[in-house]
Write a structure and sequence with these properties.
With 398 residues, this protein is an alpha/beta fold. It is built from 17 helices and nine strands. The strands form two sheets. Strands 7-6-5-4-3-8-9 form a seven-stranded parallel β-sheet, sandwiched between helices. A two-stranded antiparallel sheet has the order 1-2. InterPro entries: Glyco_trans_29 (IPR001675), Glycosyltr_29_Sialyltrsf (IPR050943), GT29-like_sf (IPR038578).
């Protein structure tokens, strides 16, 4: 009789344990964020080993699936993602120049971490940027922030000034044309070769506001990867000088070429270097002369100075920030949701396949002019904190 009771008790315990396991497995998993995870994680030898091990995709086995349902594998995954974020943060302040393979290794691991938008982190960082730079009011030179008769200092040639005459004042909008913020969903489209064969065009075009850099091609077969929509595109005066002879001729060709951007703003650094001013003003007057739908506007030099100082405190020390990084910084202030495409400063993919510098050519920037790896490091941090999303590789097809 005792043997029968013992057997029944053991069987009941087994069945109860199975039910509890099943109930635990049916609960929806919620991936804890890095900040939350840091508060609850207990550092054990097993966790330390997990941090050192490579972050790989989850094999579809019965045992691993069960572990995932119990939250064990998710905890390990979140812990590894937190370690990656800490690694990115610590390397941003070191003077050491990391090789390309170091960043590729980090990116490959980061790709396996689920991205989650974090409104609190976004609001905090947006407030930081607003305190230093205030893109809403100061990103674009306007009559409101550039008084008539004042002497404006150049951004880089800071010892030189330009008198804001009536002619210059009339070229400026009364207030920033981007002050009707926040835009809901913004796409910042870089020109990296990683965009080739990405199929990101349709996703980019669905954005409420699309920023582009340096008059990139968007028409023809490439549009399936980069999209057509453009609301603002930066213009490097060197492009105007080299391709259009500073608009002393080839005005018609220039106007025809920029027509592909619809009614977009053409944003120029007229007040960064004194040598940029005449060319930038020529773009403005050419668009006016041909009654083009595009409109030339100018970076405010004080905004760019303050922005450079802001990023310098975070380890980005270069002769000048890249256009893409400037635009990304402004977009974080001006947009609720920011997604980056075509940001890839490396010569190869994480699978070691060659990638051209631009999706339309392989012309490299001047050595030492920009701090591309340091900038990308900051972008990876913003991605990891859920402040913006960085598109790695191909987009999902519709």
């Amino acid at each position: 009789m005792r043997a029968v009771i013992a057997l029944a008790t053991a069987l009941g315990s087994t069945l109860l344990g199975g039910c509890l396991l099943r109930l635990g497995g049916e609960r929806p998993l919620r991936a804890r964020g890095w900040e939350e995870e840091a508060e609850v994680a207990t550092v054990t030898p097993k966790v330390v080993r997990a941090l050192r091990s490579p972050l790989t995709s989850l094999p579809q086995t019965e045992n691993r699936t069960t572990a995932n349902k119990d939250g064990i594998y998710q905890f390990e995954l979140d812990t590894k993602c937190k370690a990656i974020q800490d690694n990115i943060l610590s390397s941003s302040f070191k003077k050491k120049r990391y090789p390309e393979d170091y960043y590729l290794h980090i990116v490959k691991k980061l790709q396996n971490c689920t991205w989650v938008r974090r409104p609190e982190e976004s609001a905090k960082f947006r407030s930081e940027l607003a305190s230093c730079c205030n893109a809403v009011h100061n990103f674009i030179a306007s009559q409101n922030n550039t008084p008539l008769g004042s002497n404006m200092s150049y951004e880089v040639d800071s010892k030189k000034t330009i008198l804001i005459t009536e002619d210059i004042f009339r070229m400026l909008p009364v207030s920033s044309p981007l002050s009707v913020y926040p835009f809901k969903n913004c796409a910042v489209v870089g020109n990296g070769g990683i965009l080739k064969n990405s199929s990101c065009g349709a996703e980019i075009d669905r954005s409420d506001f699309v920023f582009r850099c340096n008059l990139p091609p968007t028409m023809g077969s490439i549009s399936k990867d980069v999209g057509n929509k453009t609301n603002l595109v930066t213009v490097n005066p060197s492009i105007i000088a080299q391709k259009y002879n500073k608009l002393n001729e080839k005005k018609t060709e220039f106007v025809e070429n920029v027509a592909v951007y619809g009614d977009a703003f053409l944003l120029l650094p007229a007040f960064s270097f004194r040598s940029n001013t005449a060319t930038s003003f020529k773009v403005y007057h050419t668009l006016q002369e041909f009654k083009a739908t595009q409109r030339a506007i100018f970076f405010h030099p004080t905004y760019l100075k303050n922005l450079a100082q802001f990023w310098r405190t975070k380890g980005v020390k270069a002769y000048r920030l890249s256009s893409g990084f400037m635009i990304t910084s402004a977009a974080v202030e001006l947009c609720e949701n920011v997604k980056l495409y075509g940001f890839w400063p490396f010569s190869k993919s994480t699978e070691k396949m060659p990638i051209s510098h631009h999706y339309y050519d392989n012309q490299l920037p001047k050595p030492g002019f920009h701090a591309m790896p340091k900038e990308y490091n900051q972008i990876l941090q913003l991605h990891g904190k859920g402040i913006l999303k960085l598109q790695f590789g191909k987009c999902e097809s519709d």
